[in-house]
Write a structure and sequence with these properties.
By secondary structure, the protein is α+β, with helices and mostly antiparallel strands. The protein folds into two domains: 11-46; 52-103, Roll (SH3 type barrels). 35% of the residues lie in helices and 27% in strands. The protein is built from two helices and five strands, in the order ααβββββ. It has helices at 2-9, 20-49, and strands spanning 56-59, 64-71, 77-83, 86-91, 95-98. Strands 4-3-2-1-5 form a five-stranded antiparallel beta sheet. Strand 1 (56-59) and strand 2 form a beta hairpin.
């Protein structure tokens, strides 16, 4: 029975030392996940604000084209000319980025 009492005596202290591993995990998540993702999101928003007529863009659907114009309230709709006299209306938020900065550009092959 003595071993049961000994196990109860060596219980971890309930002070701030118990929270240090949790704080370390939160700090690691912040530095590795939240902060870089926030920076990437801010850069994408700035890139969307800077879109101009004539820019080559890539949509989230994988369509390459050039911006032919803007429509709607606060220019939230982008008219994308994909060639062959075909123009698509796409929400500005569905523009993935500029085609020049896209990692895979099939036109460049």
């Amino acid at each position: 029975m003595e071993f049961l009492f000994a196990a109860g005596e060596s219980a971890p202290s309930a002070g701030i030392a118990g929270f240090i591993p949790i704080l370390a995990i939160v700090a690691i998540f912040y530095l590795l996940i939240w902060r870089p993702q926030s920076k990437q999101r801010k850069a994408h928003v700035e890139q969307l604000k800077a879109l101009r007529k004539g820019d080559s863009v890539l949509t989230r659907g994988g369509i390459y084209g050039k911006i032919a114009g803007f429509q709607g309230k606060e220019n939230q709709k982008v008219i994308v000319d994909v060639g062959g006299n075909i123009k698509l209306t796409v929400a500005r938020t569905y523009i993935a980025g500029l085609a020049d900065s896209a990692p895979e550009n099939p036109e460049g092959n």
